[in-house]
Design a protein that fits this description.
about 375 residues, alpha/beta, Nucleotidyltransferase, domain 5, 3 domains, 5-stranded mixed sheet, two-stranded antiparallel ribbon, 13 helices, about 10% strand, globular
Length: about 375
């Protein structure tokens, strides 16, 4: 047995079998390939016990991916440390052109020992279930958008232009049903596409209703209610922010959250030259997209609508102050940037970046005052 009592284990997870490598502590500690193990709970449990029996302390890691967090929860339940690694932040050698399960497991073990891996935040089972529900609704909305785009392209191809001002209303659907074509196959194709739109819309509305029912019993329900005090933030945006970001306590400042959402400008500087470009678009794209959409509401002067007034009555005074401060600052910033000739897309991105900061402040306030 080795003189070292600590080991770092890298696991390259897969659907059927997981590759495992062990790196012993110390700069000169041996790094060896343990082998492939069946990916089932029983197979991994046996392998973990075999490894843990040889060392006093064992730390495990594996890449985040489609296999989820079941292995993380299994390792933690057995009393060992484990981190789930962000794949995009794993250091890689530019000249390394060989990739297989064995090399990946050894690389993870080596980097874990060196402290070069970045861990992702792992939600609990209830949080993960809510996130899956919200993502299912997002997928339904995207499917609805694609089906609508197919109908628009179909009608444009046949030279049919809707005379009304707003599409996808009851009148628009009635207009689609009234269309006639020389060949009956075109009518059937249009009818099938309309049915697909109706089905997708019903699915999205059904999922949104279910989200509203489940969120009331969720641990982050107070955060969701408080976030809706902000202008441009409704139930879906608040729930998406809470499910994707999770615990805001892991961000020490609003700027860290902005960077996590990819809303900060990229930079390529050297010496005395500083060059900044567009936003990095790193991190979570779902929250970033919704924040940019919400920022369009700040093009109007500050005011509190009847619906938002009802939301404000349900939150504490500090949160109401944050929401009003956000309106005053962001509407003024929108006017200033527009007056300077900035494009509307650039302005909305800047507003979205600061809106993320106010959401951080609201979530932080709720977290500090929730027992």
């Amino acid at each position: 047995m080795s003189d070292y009592t600590e080991a770092f284990v890298g696991i390259d997870v897969a659907k059927l079998r997981n590759a495992i490598a062990i790196a012993e502590a110390g700069r000169s500690g041996e790094i060896r390939y343990f082998g492939e193990v069946e990916a089932s709970d029983a197979g991994m449990r046996r392998a973990i016990h075999r490894i843990a029996a040889r060392f006093e302390r064992v730390c495990f890691c594996y890449e985040a991916g489609p296999t989820g967090y079941g292995l993380y929860r299994l390792i933690r339940s057995l009393g060992h440390e484990c981190i789930v690694v962000a794949p995009s932040l794993i250091p890689k050698k530019p000249g390394d052109r060989v990739k297989n399960n064995r090399r990946d497991a050894i690389s993870l073990a080596r980097l874990l020992r060196a402290g070069e891996l970045t861990a992702v935040w792992v939600p609990d089972e209830g949080h993960e279930a809510m996130r899956d529900l919200v993502r299912a609704r997002t997928s339904a909305v995207e499917t609805l958008r694609i089906h609508r785009q197919q109908i628009s392209a179909f009608m444009l191809k046949h030279g049919r232009i809707y005379p009304g001002k707003k599409s996808w209303t009851k009148r628009y659907l009635q207009w689609l049903h009234e269309q006639s074509f020389a060949h009956p196959a075109h009518k059937i194709a249009l009818q099938e596409m309309v049915e697909a739109v109706c089905t997708s819309k019903a699915r999205a509305e059904r999922l949104e209703k279910v989200i509203g029912e489940f969120v009331s019993n969720w641990s982050l329900a107070p955060t969701v209610r408080a976030l809706q005090a902000l202008r441009g933030v409704d139930l879906i945006i608040a729930v998406t922010f809470a499910t994707e970001v999770g615990d805001v306590g892991r961000f020490e400042s609003p700027r860290q959250l902005m960077g996590y959402l990819g809303l900060v400008p990229g930079e390529r500087s050297t010496g005395e030259t500083t060059k900044r470009g567009g936003i990095t678009k790193a991190g979570n794209s779902r929250v970033r997209t919704l924040l940019v959409e919400s920022s369009w509401t700040y093009r109007y002067p500050p005011r509190i609508s009847k619906r938002k007034f009802y939301r404000l009555e349900q939150v504490s005074s500090p949160i109401r102050d944050i929401a009003w401060k956000a309106q005053i600052r962001l509407t003024a910033r929108y006017r200033r940037l527009t007056a300077r000739g900035k494009k509307s897309t650039v302005v909305c991105t800047a507003i979205a970046r600061e809106l993320a900061g106010f959401m951080w402040a609201v979530a932080r306030e709720v977290r500090q005052n929730t027992p």
